[in-house]
Amino acid sequence: MFPLYDENPTRITPYFTYGLIGMNILVFLHEVSLPNAQLNQFLSQYAVIPQELTTNLSGEWITLFTSQFLHGGWWHLISNMVFLWVFGNNIEDRLGHAKYLIFYLACGALAALCQWFIGMNSEIPSLGASGAISGVLGAYIIRFPQTRVMTLIFLGFFITTIRVPALVIIGLFFVQNVISGVATLQTAANMSVQTGGVAYWAHIGGFAFGVILAPLFGLFRQD
């Protein structure tokens, strides 16, 4: 299931959602322009490397934020940006521009820490906006659970679109990550985009913190 758009108009122009999408695209275009050796150096410097974070938190904490703007491939980038495009604008609308940016970055950093906790001694870089976007999804599902989302469905060779409640598409995303995260718990330290794996616990952590933090940032405030 792949979201295309939601039926949830906003009252503001979501400048920070657009800006975050633009920054992610620009950073990825820089990544693909680098030769392999320079790319590996770039990722090592700005992605979260759990072992280095464990041994040098004071020097590596900034990667909890810089890693949110790195991606391991075109599909990784496109899927993340589509989810941010569909769901981010309404959360920015409810929280306000500044609080939304703080919320987004905080969810991403806390999500990275969740993945780090699973494999503190891993040497494999962890990167991507998925943790922060999972926080946005967590906020969306508790604020707009019944909002209809036009969704692309792949059933083998059959492709169609249907309108489903946000509760369904986001709920399935979370359940899938929980099942996969538990199933891969023993090898979670080795899961990253770079190895073809998925940082499920960053997704789970980001989602959970989104549910917890969004109300504190004013998700349910009455205007």
UniProtKB/TrEMBL annotation:
Residues 59-217 form the Peptidase S54 rhomboid domain. GO terms for biological process: proteolysis. The keyword Membrane applies. Keywords: Hydrolase, Membrane, Protease, Transmembrane, Transmembrane helix. The chain crosses the membrane at residues 12-30, 69-88, 100-118, 124-142, 154-179, 199-220. Coiled coil: none annotated. Its main location: membrane. It is found in: Membrane. One of its GO terms (molecular function) is peptidase activity. Belongs to the peptidase S54 family. This is Rhomboid family intramembrane serine protease. It comes from Nostoc favosum CHAB5714.
